[in-house]
Each structure stands twice: as structure tokens, then as C-alpha cells.
Amino acid sequence: MDYFPIFCQLKDKPCLLVGGGEIAERKARLLMEAGASVSVIAPSFTGQFMQWHAEHKLSCITGVFTADHLSGKWLVIAATDSEQVNQQVFQSATEKQIFCNVVDSPEQASFIMPSVIDRSPIVVAISSGGKAPVLARILREKIEQQLPNYLGVLAQLAGTLREQIKQRFSSMNARRYFWEQFFADKSLQSEIEAQRSDGIEQRISALLSENQQPQGSVVLVGAGPGDAGLMTIKGLQQCQQADVVVYDRLVSDEVMGLVRRDAQRIYVGKQAGFHCVPQDEINQILIKEATAGKRVVRLKGGDPFIFGRGSEELEALIEHHIPFSVIPGITAASGCATYAGIPLTHRDYAQSVRFITGHGKGLNEAEWQCIAQKNQTLVFYMGLSKAQYIQQMLLSQNMCATMPIAIIEKGTLATQKVVVGQLRQLTEMAETMESPALIIVGEVVKLNEKLQWFQSKSAK
Ligand code: SAH
């Protein structure tokens, strides 16, 4: 960071502006908006400056800058059209250790002025450190569009309510919960936009009575296969509001990086050499945290309803009358196949796709017969350690030994690894791969040669 961003309290503080032209006018306006006590020194002034002077908004001193003008000043801006004068101002200010901005010359300044979006008391400042002012402006425009006009009033209101809310809600959680409801409340926003003070008051009273006690809940969120960008917007919003996040092994570090920083994180996955936390214990954690009034996010890899035991956790919540909701995620089959350039269906090769678990209850002969049918794609989850068995069963149902297959390890992550071969090589291929990995069997796999697009770091 080349510049340290701070917001200065300039109210009634003496500040000096050197220059009386149009560029200086812009700086004067900003200083006045911040409530500074502005003196302007210049040999001559624009009409605007003269008017401000007459209105006592600032004070114009006709003359040439000398170091004496710096005495008692907190901040200086050099905005003349003479580089030499600007430099002299900067040097004198630096000697006296007064922060000085030089217009259009960031390399010569001890502070620079950012691009500002003013929704006071909300102020957003953007700077490119003088390297790319146009980019800073583009960003400013983008952010400006995102910030509604009522934001300032909303923040102002929040300021006046702060003490009252502190008295009303003793726990920090309850206060945070109230503020989140307050800032998200659409009715309050429309009352502010319509400038109806009665309506605003009524809405605030309603919010206060509605939010006495935050009710705990659980949201089952699908985190997707690994790449954090693949999580849904709803999932992300939940992760950023959660009090507690219960997660397991398949949730990537990247995704955990998006969780609210202050949220409590409870890991229930497998530790090296140990087993996972038993399902019943996970259920108990969810029940305990939600009953304590917390907003719990149960974060699961992929989609919680695809080989995720999500429904078992929900049944436990239902028994305890705990409110819940579910946000789907991109399942490994979809994410990994896409990042490996393998379409799961294709008009010529596969009219259907099957998601099959390599674990759990075994499949019978008749089921394997269906699985080995032509014109479909098979996706085996948790199949790595059962690769040999899967291979035998498919071959015993007369699936062609040259059927294309792929194994995708850590799909969608930068460390993704993809190997492609034929059914006859499945066992050996599986031995070179690590968990989590997905096995895809079907003609569609051969499209990978043409369609692969994702360059993982470990690409072969
Ligand atoms: N609910 C998850 C699946 C859980 S079962 C989902 O919808 O994706 C766990 C299995 O999913 C793993 O054994 C592996 O086969 C597969 N899997 C999950 N994430 C994966 C990834 N990033 N790469 C490869 N396979 C993955």
C-alpha cells in the first residue's frame, strides 16, 4: 500500500489553498464541504472565489505565497498553474511537516485526494495511488450505481438509534441481527425515499418489536465443488451473515475464505487418520447452536441433496422444530465435467446421465445391467477406492473395454488433475489419483480432447 487511507476531521481546522483559479475552486469546494476553515492565497481570484469570500465561506488573501502563510495550518493544497510555485509550496509544507497535496502531481504530494462517493455519513473513497486515475473514475461510477441515494439518510438514522439499540439489546448477536434487518428492510427504504417521516418512525417501531429475540435457524448451503466462484449468490449471502458455520472436508479453503470473518467455524470432516464426526453428533451441533438463537450455516461440498446426507440433517431439525432452508449448489458431476471439458450429455453420444455412488449399499445384478446400457454417461462419486470393482462389473455387463473414461481429481480447483483413458485401464488409472475424485464413463469423455479449456496449475 503506497498511501495510507484515512478520513480526516477538518471541521473548523485552518487549511491553506494556494491558487485562485478554476482548479483551485474545485479543491476549495471539497474543503468547504468538509467544514474546514479555508484561507486562499493567490495574486488574483475568480469571481466565484470573490463571492465565497463576500459570503464568509472562506477567506481570500491577495498576494504571493510565502512560508509564513503555512503557520497554524493542518493541511495545504497547491493548485496554481505554476509548477514552480506548486513545488515551493510543497517544499515549505514538507519542512514544516504539514501534509500537502499538489494538484495533478501525485509524485510531489504528501497526500493525494481520492475519488469520492458521498452519501454522508457513508463516504466511499477510491484511489489508484495516482497510477490510473481513469480506472479509479470507472470504479467510482460502478460503485456509485450500486449505492442508492437513501443510503445516507439510512446511515444517519442508524446513528441516532445507536444508543437506544445498545440499551435495548444486551447481546452483541442480537444487536447485529437487528442492524442487519434494519439495513435490509425494503419498507423502511421506501419510506425514506418518499421522505415520509411518520412512515419511517412506524417502520422503526415495527422493526424493534419484530426483532426482540433472534430466532435460530439452519441453512443448508451447497458450496459447490471447490472453485469459490461457483457458489450461488444466495449461498454467499448466507455465509456472510452466519454466526456459526459447520463445514466438512469437501468445502474448499477458497470457499471458507468467503465466510464472515467473525463467524464461529466448526469443522466436522475427517482429520488425517481419524474418522469423520459421526452424523448424529453433527445433528446435535446444529440443534444446539440453532437453539441458542444462532444463525447456522451448514456448508456442504457440491449440492447438499446429492450424496450429501443433507436430508438426514434436516429430519433431525424438523424433530426439534428448528426453522431451516436449503440452497442448492453445483454438484461435483456438473462442476468437474465442465472444468474437464466433458459435456455430460450429447445429442450423438448420451441421452441421459446417471450419478452413482461407489459407496453405500451395493447394487444388484439387474441394476448393473441398467447402468451398463449404451448412450448414457455414468458419473461415479466416491468411486476411487472401488475402481476395480466398478471396472469388473461394467465389463461383466459387456460394456466395451475401450469405452472412454476420465478421472477428475480436485475438480474446479487450481490443483485439478484429469486423466483420460479406456475402461480396461480404470484400475491402474485410479491408483495414480487422490481423493476427492470423480469417475466419468461414456462416449462423451472423448470430447475432452477438443473442449478442454481450464488450465489448472497441475495440467499435464
Ligand atoms: N454433495 C457432493 C458429493 C458428496 S460425496 C456433491 O454434490 O458434489 C463426495 C464425493 O464427491 C467425492 O468422493 C468425489 O467423488 C466427489 N467430489 C466432490 N467434490 C469433488 C471435486 N472437487 N473433485 C472431484 N470429485 C469431487
TrEMBL record:
Siroheme synthase central domain ranges (all copies): 124-146
Enzyme Commission numbers on file: 2.1.1.107, 1.3.1.76, 4.99.1.4
GO biological process, one term: methylation
SUPFAM superfamilies linked: NAD(P)-binding Rossmann-fold domains, Siroheme synthase middle domains-like, Tetrapyrrole methylase
Short name of any one Pfam family annotated for the protein: TP_methylase
Domain Sirohaem synthase dimerisation span(s) in chain numbering: 151-208
Region feature (Precorrin-2 dehydrogenase / sirohydrochlorin ferrochelatase): 1-204
Signal peptide location: none
Keyword Methyltransferase: yes
Annotated binding of NAD(+), by residue: 22-23, 43-44
Active site location: 248 (proton acceptor), 270 (proton donor)
Keywords: Cobalamin biosynthesis, Lyase, Methyltransferase, Multifunctional enzyme, NAD, Oxidoreductase, Phosphoprotein, Porphyrin biosynthesis, S-adenosyl-L-methionine, Transferase
Domain Tetrapyrrole methylase positions: 218-426
GO function term, MF aspect, one: uroporphyrin-III C-methyltransferase activity
UniProt-listed PROSITE patterns: SUMT_1, SUMT_2
Gene3D superfamilies for this protein: Cobalt-precorrin-4 Transmethylase, Domain 1, Methyltransferase, Cobalt-precorrin-4 Transmethylase, Domain 2, NAD(P)-binding Rossmann-like Domain, Sirohaem synthase, dimerisation domain, Siroheme synthase, domain 2
Region Uroporphyrinogen-III C-methyltransferase: start-end pairs: 216-460
Binding locations of S-adenosyl-L-methionine: 225, 301-303, 306, 331-332, 382, 411
Catalytic function, reaction form: precorrin-2 + NAD(+) = sirohydrochlorin + NADH + 2 H(+); uroporphyrinogen III + 2 S-adenosyl-L-methionine = precorrin-2 + 2 S-adenosyl-L-homocysteine + H(+); siroheme + 2 H(+) = sirohydrochlorin + Fe(2+)
Associated pathway: Cofactor biosynthesis; adenosylcobalamin biosynthesis; precorrin-2 from uroporphyrinogen III: step 1/1; Porphyrin-containing compound metabolism; siroheme biosynthesis; precorrin-2 from uroporphyrinogen III: step 1/1; Porphyrin-containing compound metabolism; siroheme biosynthesis; siroheme from sirohydrochlorin: step 1/1; Cofactor biosynthesis; adenosylcobalamin biosynthesis; sirohydrochlorin from precorrin-2: step 1/1
Purpose: Then it catalyzes the NAD-dependent ring dehydrogenation of precorrin-2 to yield sirohydrochlorin. Finally, it catalyzes the ferrochelation of sirohydrochlorin to yield siroheme.
Family: Belongs to the precorrin methyltransferase family. In the N-terminal section; belongs to the precorrin-2 dehydrogenase / sirohydrochlorin ferrochelatase family.
Protein name (Swiss-Prot/TrEMBL): Siroheme synthase
